[in-house]
Inverse folding.
């Protein structure tokens, strides 16, 4: 191993960071609780601590630092614009970190949304290896995306690209957190899956989940697990969520003609979304564009957050001229 | 003027070609009938004749040749894959032309679909000047698109990108030429506008078009003109076509976060689609992405075909290293 980058995954609950080689294998790793309640400066100080620890452990030069975070980011300036799970607004992470770590970090620190980190992780080390045109989709509490076009991460005119969670599929459908109705996120996310199942149980549908439901509110994870055990209602709810997702992704397929769509996130685990997504894409997108795309589960495991963040640094080191 | 490219617009009825300077102003121009019935080789010979004429007239070096054509193209190999209005399948235009004009043309001839030529024309010389992220949409007999992302023409994994005419908006809607139902093209194109108006008249709707309709089948142009004169039914049909188009473009806006959407084509002339498109985008796309995009009418006039084709050559000369 001749060099590392550091990948740091910033979440509302914990900070995870690791030294990652150019082969994508995480080496030494540290994890800290985020402790949001202590304020942004304390969180940044804790991030700096992780980075100092990793540097101290490194047996090779650390070329760059990639930070993946939930929410909206300004990747040009290294700012978290708005992250509801961090309760942050306009926090200039790159500048604040460089004040603690040294100004030489400024030009080799990259901050981006976690789905952009994930698409690069999957492209460099995961299921979409080497692809020039790919979309990463996460299905969990929300539905989000990150995309690579012509071999490069794509942000759009105002860093708003790949915001696929709010494609409106059903204008009269269920209310979404964004204020519109029938967004993909209101139809295919974890909360949507839990809500749909709960409504069906309230209407008297048969299900293995009836006892659980009598005891406590259902989670999407309950539904995924019941579907994997063959519960008919849960299978049907997952199928419906996957079909809506596939219909939304069919728009992506005809607009951007990708080689890979990689599906990750908590709700995608178990693979129940894959078949309905593939079916809906082939039903709704053009045949030639459908033939060009492979829909695959995410290839990176539990370390995907730090690996993706490190991939952000490797990708930028490849595309940035100093 | 120190150099030209040649832009050639290949249509089912006519071939138009012109010397175009780097400022986008067409100089000497030639037009020929296509005479498809004589076969592809005769058409290619006629194209070569146009190019020889322009070269003979040129007072400066001709650096490259851009060819814009309807249908699907393989821009890497310079092949028209399928063009229904030319009745061509897999015609290797670049190679056949170089056999007639000289092998030195091979590496400076670019063939692409006309909407890709148009987006570059609008970007270099038209309504989207200097933009890094833009979509050109044509609304005429069909609905098609061409896109520039991060400053470069984008083709996708199999040259199928920007095929926005077949986004399925209404799965139970009117049948589209592609075999699916409720595609954008089946809701917003010229034939869709003529069909919707005809159906309304058959159901007894009031309209200035009743006399025309009694005499002959309505064209979309009749509807556009009546709407511009204030005919209520025609205004309503145009509004509906524009709203569907805007709903489809809202998907584009949230996926690719463009700076400009430029609307051209016969049905867009008169500007009746602009307001409903803008309204639908702001209703359906995310506020930040809506704020980032300007929806404008095409800026190039009747010479847009040859100017766009020449822009294809200028764009490629800028991005190709020899």
């Amino acid at each position: 191993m001749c060099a590392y980058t550091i990948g740091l995954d910033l979440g509302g609950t914990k900070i995870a960071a690791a030294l990652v080689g150019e082969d994508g294998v995480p080496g030494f790793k540290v994890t800290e609780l985020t402790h949001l309640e202590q304020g942004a400066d304390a969180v940044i100080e804790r991030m700096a601590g992780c980075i100092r620890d990793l540097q101290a452990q490194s047996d090779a030069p650390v070329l760059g630092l990639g930070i993946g975070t939930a929410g909206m980011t300004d990747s040009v300036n290294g700012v978290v614009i708005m992250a509801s799970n961090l309760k942050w607004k306009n926090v200039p992470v790159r500048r604040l970190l460089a004040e603690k770590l040294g100004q030489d970090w400024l030009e080799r620190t990259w901050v981006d949304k976690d789905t952009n980190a994930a698409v690069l992780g999957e492209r460099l080390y995961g299921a979409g290896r080497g692809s020039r045109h790919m979309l990463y989709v996460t299905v969990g509490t929300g539905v989000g995306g990150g995309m690579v076009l012509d071999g490069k991460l794509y942000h759009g005119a105002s860093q708003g690209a790949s915001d696929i969670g709010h494609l409106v599929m059903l204008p009269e459908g269920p209310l979404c957190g964004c204020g519109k109705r029938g967004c993909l996120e209101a139809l295919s996310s974890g909360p949507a899956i839990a809500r749909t199942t709960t409504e069906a149980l309230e209407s008297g549908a048969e299900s293995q989940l009836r006892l659980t439901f009598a005891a406590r509110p259902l989670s999407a994870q309950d539904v995924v697990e019941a579907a994997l055990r063959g519960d008919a209602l849960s299978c049907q709810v997952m199928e419906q969520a996957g079909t809506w997702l596939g219909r939304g992704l069919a728009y992506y397929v005809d607009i951007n003609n990708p080689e890979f769509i990689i599906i990750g996130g908590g709700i995608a685990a178990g693979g129940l979304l894959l078949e309905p997504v593939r079916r809906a894409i082939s039903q709704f997108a053009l045949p030639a564009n459908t033939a060009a795309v492979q829909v695959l589960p995410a290839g990176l495991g539990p370390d995907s957050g730090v690996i993706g963040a490190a991939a952000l640094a490797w990708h930028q080191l490849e595309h940035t001229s100093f």
